[in-house]
Amino acid sequence: IVTRRQQEEGVKTNMQVGYGSYNTLQTEFSNRVKKGRFSSVVTGSYNRTDGHRPDMGFEQYGGYAKLGYDISSFWKVWGDVNVTHFNASNPGTIQVPLIDNDSRITRGMTSFALENHYEKTSGGLSFFYNWGRHKINDGYQIGKEPQKSHFNSKDKMLGVSWYQSATFFTGNRLTVGFDYQHFGGESWNKVLATGEHTPGVDKQMDEFAGYVDFRQDISSWFSLDAGIRVDHHSHVGTEWIPQGGLAFHLPKNAELKAMVSKGYRNPTIREMYMFPPANPELKPEKLINYELSYSQRLLEGALSYGISLYYINGDNLIMSNGLFPPLNINSGEIENWGVETNIGYHINSHWNVNANYSWLHMENPVLAAPEHKLYAGADYTSGRWSISTGVQYVKGLYTSVVKGSEQQDHFVLWNLRGNYRVCRFANLFIKGENLLAQRYEINAGYPMPKATFMGGINLNF
Question: How many angstroms from the chain centroid is the CA of residue 70?
Answer without folding.
Answer: 30
